[in-house]
Amino acid sequence: MKKFLLRMFIGLLFALFGLISYYTNVEKNPITGEVQHVSLSPRQEIVLGLKSRGQLAEQYGGLYPDSTLQNYVDEVGLRVVQKSAAAQSSYPFDFHLLHDPKIVNAFALPGGQVFVTMALFNRLNSEAQLAGVLGHEVGHVIGRHGSEHLARQQLGAALVNAVGITASDDPRNAQQAAIVAQAVNQLVNLKYSRADELESDRLGFEFMTKAGYSPKGLVELMQILGSANSGGSPPEFLSTHPNPGNRVELLQAIITKTYPQGIPRNLEEGQERFAQAVLTNHSQN
After folding, report:
1. Among the record's GO biological process terms, what is one (predicted)?
2. What pLDDT score does 44 carry?
């Protein structure tokens, strides 16, 4: 009994330390205004992103070798950043086209490193669609979703350790308790992850339209991904992103609310520029 009480006391200390650490590490996001639980400073996010970008690129076949398309993706991404509220951040954004021709995906590392695979790029047909992809990923960076996710993981790990210590008298019980605790932690993270994705849609909409792109590009992106999903196994992009059909409805609602008289004609789709970049790439290869 004494051993059990000691284990419970130590377990409670682990849990208490994790909870205190999580709930005291709070910052107000200067762009979104959201009060967030984060585990990294903006500077630490930048360093993490810079250190991780090479290793991550290697997992997708490295960078696409054509400098024309690399520069084009970077140009569109920087326009989305520099012409919107994202320019107020201290993150040095950098946009990369990955060589992988099969995995349809796009993602961002904390600190401003943004990636899109060639498999996804090949499904696009306008600059506005590309701006929608990049704007969404910029939204993840500005929203500090990576740092929030890491903070939740650290809290979850502390609670898992606390349960494991308390139940460690029987290894099988300890393992089962840890599995249950980890499952709960994953469900919590999944819930917040989907909320992050929807927030990135909203931020991406704001960033791309401020940069002069038509929000139709973001809606069309979701439709393209939905179409890819109906043909068999879903693209990797959808494994962490909510159902594109639901997102189309939400985006349409945002467009109607923002532009009750219709999308302004000065917001570009950029189909010709996109086609020219693709054509230039094909002529050089």
Report:
1. proteolysis involved in protein catabolic process
2. 86
The answer to whether 207 and 75 have CB atoms below 8 angstroms apart is no
Question: What pLDDT, on a 0 to 100 scale, did the predictor assign at position 37?
Answer: 72
Q: Which residues contact 197 (CB under 8 A, 6 or more apart)?
A: 240, 241, 242
Q: Is the pLDDT of residue 102 over 60?
A: yes
Structural domain boundaries in the chain: 37-145+189-283
Exposure on the CB side of residue 280, measured as CA atoms within 13 A: 13
Residue 8 CA: distances (Å) to CA of 13, 134, 158, 168? 9, 48, 14, 10
Query: CA-to-CA distance for 109 and 114, rounded, in angstroms?
Result: 6
Instruction: Write out pLDDT tens, residues 197-232.
Output: 889 999 999 999 999 999 999 999 988 887 765 444
CA distance 140 to 236: 17
Q: What whole-number distance in Å separates Cα of residue 147 and Cα of residue 58?
A: 23
Q: Can you read off the two tokens belonging to residue 9? A: 């006391």
CB 245 within 8 A of CB 226: yes
pLDDT tens digits for 138-182?
Answer: 999 999 988 787 766 665 454 445 444 444 454 444 444 444 444
Per-residue burial over 86-117, b = 16 or more CB atoms within 10 Å of its CB, e = otherwise: bbebebebbbbbbebeebbbbbbbbbbbbbbb
What tens digit of pLDDT does each residue of 182-199 get? Answer: 443 443 343 436 778 889
